[in-house]
Task: structure prediction
Amino acid sequence: METVIILIISVAVAIYIALPFFLKRGSQGNDAPVILEVESGEHEIEKLKSLDNQKETLYSAIRDIDFDYELGKLSKEDFIELKNNYKLDAAGVLKEIDQIRNQSGTKTPDYELEQEILSYRKR
Amino acid sequence: MVETGNISIFLALIISIYVLVASIYGVKTRKWDFVKSAENGALAVCALLIIATIALLHSLINLDFSLKYVALNTSTDLATIYRFTSLWAGQAGSILLWCLVLSFYTAIVVLQSRKKDRQLMPYVLSTLAAVSIFFIFIIAFVESPFEKLSFIPKEGRGLNPILQNAYMAIHPLTLYIGYVGLTVPFAFGMGALLSGKLGDEWIRYSRKWALFAWTFLGIGLLLGARWAYLELGWGGYWAWDPVENAAFMPWLAATAFIHSVMIQEKKGMLKKWNMALIILTFFLAIFGTFITRSGIISSVHSFAQSDIGPLFLGFIAFILLFSFGMFLYRINDLEAENRFDSILSRESAFIFNNLLFLGAAFAVFLGTIFPILSEALTGNKILVGPPYFNRVNVPIALVLIMLMGIGPLISWRKASFKNLLKNFLYPLLLGIFTVIVLLALGMKNITALIAFAFCAFVTGTVFTEFIRGTLVRMRRGENFLTAFMRLVSRNKRRYGGYIVHMGVVLIVIGVTASSVFVTEKQATLHKGESMELRGYSLRFDGLKQYTTDAKNATVANLTLFEGGREIGTIAPEKNIYKYEGNREINQETEVALRSTYKDDLYVILSSFNADGSATIRAMINPMVNWIWAGGIVLLLGAIVTMWPSGKKSRQEAFVRYTVREKDPTVKAQ
Result:
């Protein structure tokens, strides 16, 4: 009886491991970044991922600077200087993202959200 | 079920080797089916190790003495719960547990990342598989939990009585979740080095996993201290024992890592440092496992005779050579992306904090291996005791507490001196006030004064941060409760970290008070006689004996008075366990405790005599319960920090939009 159980386990495990070779190929496990569907090459995907991470870091930095200023940890001069520097860096990163996106004609998931905010602010 | 368990281990080993090979082959050749197959393999390994563990548990609970492991670690008188926990009581079972926990972690990593970071994850998986292979190899070929005896004994050796305690039941499990958990951030680091994807992805994953492992390692250390306090009967909770140090060293290194990783996340700096640090942290985790499992603590000679010791040493050497080799290979790709904005910044404070934590870890490492090295080189074991460890680590700890207070007051990137002084004011006043009050109360110990002053300073800082942050939000129109809740929920890492710091403060207060101000007395009492100890009086009412299936117990009945008023009874015991065998303790001390927030009255029956007299040892440990309370606060803070964030808020979208839109204060490039 135990031999049968061992055999069943072994076969089940072997089938499970071999399954990907027999299932219909889907998306190839594409390294689709969280934010983009890009038909261009892998290099652009990696570049966009890197830029997106940089963007997140810079946004987080700007939030920290705003919050620290409100908490009184930064002088006004330091606040303006730091915020300007990080906004400039962020603007540069966004420009690069836009260039790549325009070349491939793709959208980010928060693209629609940002369009909605833009239209709201124009009202 | 024994055969099923045994075969499952061998299958797990074979499949782990396949996972290692297939994941690398798949990512190198872009044949993603191999990567998916490897991922399925990792999940299968987890299932197989679960089967093996269930098989062993079945044997333990049903007392199958035909298995050597069951015979060595259980007995017919052992309660069911301890038959369960004897899974990790011995060498083979604890290594099986290591494998099982690692397989769980690997499975979670696979399931969380099935469609993400396809260039990075196969290398992460291969690293996890490589570590798994080593440990599964040990239980397959060297120290099998399913090894059979040539005969079936009628009775097992049983579980050491001092391990039959609730804290010891869960302490190894929490420690292992911590130790093993450090494999995951290490795997992400190695994945980044092997793949060349040295951006932010690996550090984001690593930070979360490192924090999780760090939390469990810390809780495991505190549970072990609590067990030692309750069971070992010497009145303390930490003795700088090699087994304690084995877990403390990786905890110190991991603490440094979870701080310095924030700098890389925020500024893209310290990339080389963080990579080296995670390798070091993992090395210390494996080293800790090595010194507790290899027998090298008891003697270099027992290490050399053990099967497991040389294997571990070889594995450690391989990890260090391979990891640092890859690190040097990629070192030019680990350049910082940004600059330091100011020496007076939180980044600088974090770097200083890192150096101190690593200094402490190195000091503990040196003290731990010195006896081993001295025996290996000279034949004489030179012991290194608490005086060395305390002399080195107490000053480091005091500076770290001070930094815990300074760090939050400084901004990231840049702090102005004027603002710093303004923010320092109330916490500093609280620290000074604390010193004045304690001096007025007669405290003279300088170390304790400094420790309490710094703790008050940190407390002032943390409370100031919460109050200021809440007030900032209230200015936006929120009521106090909403403002407070949103302050924490939208800044979980920052404010969760502050709660963790408060937990550390409570622990430091408890350690300081109970170390510096402990009072002790020992007396031999005849029936009716009393001993006094700082406001308490203990009257000895005589000895009593009772017997259970497992033991013969002698109890000293004492009536307790405080300030002349009777407040209760207290009854320390001495137990002799009935069954013969290789039990290390045959006279176990059961401590009697009276615990309040103020202090513990800790009473031990040292010995008893034929004339009915008893030697009683009593201690007052001030504020020792603040240590355990601090552990709970630390855990709560860690949970807050690790709590997953919800969807991106509109606030963040507005921040993005502000940056996107042409801002008149920003000159466009």
